[in-house]
Amino acid sequence: MLKVFFLGMIFGAIMQLGFLDRLSKVVGAFLLKDLTIPKALLIAMGVGAILIYTGEHFGLLQFHIKPFYPVGVALGGLVFGTGMVIVGYCPGSMPEAVGEGRMDAFLGIVSGVIGGIIFTVLYPVYHNSFLHGPTFGAPTLTDLFGLEGISKMIVGTAIGGTFVVLAFVIDWLEKKYIKD
Amino acid sequence: MKEKPVINWFWAGFFLALINFIVFIVEHRPIGASTAFPYLGNLLFPVINNEYLPEIEKAGRWELWFLAGGFVGAVITSLLTRTFRLTFTPVYWENRLNLGRKSRILFAFLGGFLLIFGARMAGGCTSGHMFSGGMQLAVSSLLFGIFAFAGGLITANLIYRRRYR
């Protein structure tokens, strides 16, 4: 677990240096005033897709895809997005925010842990309810197109490249149209 | 004025992709965060007839160690770059949103709860779904990203827009 701790330290350093753990950046993103987080996320997804799809093709790693249950994922997404704007942090950015002295994020962690306990209690009910809904495997976009082998890698890296371009387009639009 | 980060959005995103790629190779799993919260909760307050803990135990322990590292990493870089500030109410909260300390306590508490509850409903958060799932082009994660963004936009416009200055 020391290795995991060390990898976490690198993650925390990047988040903190990029100010991705700040309330101003989260709220600013959803008010469409400061697009630092959406742009960084698109770069991470885009460069990540290029690395992961290439790495998988050459047998360096395996995919780990989350199950697709549209009702629960969409409802959970709405609740999550609402919570993120209200608390001003993400689950993965609260420890870094506390690390740089923002103690309101510590309250977020405490109530997040309480939320986790209450979810644990409700899980048996939720898991079988209409709020969770049916699961349709765990597909990726390239699976939907039925791609395999080299064509999967090419399309995966191409979509990744598109995300990177999109981040720069958003940056250009932000500079042009968004006044702070 | 916008706060200018030490490294810009491009390099932050680039290095996040790189560290996740390394985690995929050496840990045989992606980066994730939200499972650490119910895991920690279950350590502190064991729930009886627990169906959830066996499903998240392994991932939860991993993510808890990962986030503990994240905390220490942020302490180090914020001290080195002199961006460490011991505060409770962010300056942005007071100056741009024109809100006070009481509302910060209330919002942090309510928001943190919804954040983790929503993430566990969907099976992931910004890290596990949007970032790790997004870069694998997972359908589930892209759907989550769209709905999380929609929920955030609606809520931000309802509660912050008219206060913003």
Q: pLDDT average of chain B, as an integer?
A: 96
- Pair with the most extensive interface? A-B, 127 and 135 residues
Q: Could you name the ranges of chain A where pLDDT drops below 50 across 5 or more consecutive residues? A: none
Global geometry of chain B: globular
Structure classification of chain B? mainly alpha
Shape of chain A: globular
In what range is the share of β-strand residues of chain B? Answer: under 5%
**Order of helix and strand elements from N to C terminus of chain A:** HHHHHHHH
Approximately how much beta-strand content do the residues of chain A carry? Answer: under 5%
Mean pLDDT of chain A: 97
Biggest beta-sheet profile of chain B: none
Tally of individual helices of chain B:
7
Distance between the termini of chain B: 11 Å
Précis, in short:
The complex is a heterodimer of chains A (180) and B (165). Chain A has 8 helices and no strands.
Could you list some keywords that capture this structure?
heterodimer, A: 180 residues, mainly alpha, 71% helix, globular, B: 165 residues
Describe the protein's architecture and organization.
The complex is a heterodimer of chains A (180) and B (165). With 180 residues, chain A is mostly helical. Helices cover 71% and strands 0% of the residues of chain A. Chain A is built from eight helices and no strands. Chain A has helices at 2-17, 23-30, 36-57, 70-87, 94-99, 104-127, 141-144, 149-177. In chain A, helix 2 (23-30) crosses helix 4. Chain B is an all-alpha fold. The mean pLDDT of chain B is 96. Chain B contains seven helices and no strands. The longest helix of chain B has 28 residues, at 53-80. Chain B has helices at 9-27, 36-44, 53-80, 91-95, 101-122, 126-135, 139-159. Chain B: This is YeeE/YedE family protein. Chain B: Keywords: Cell inner membrane, Cell membrane, Membrane, Transmembrane, Transmembrane helix, Transport.
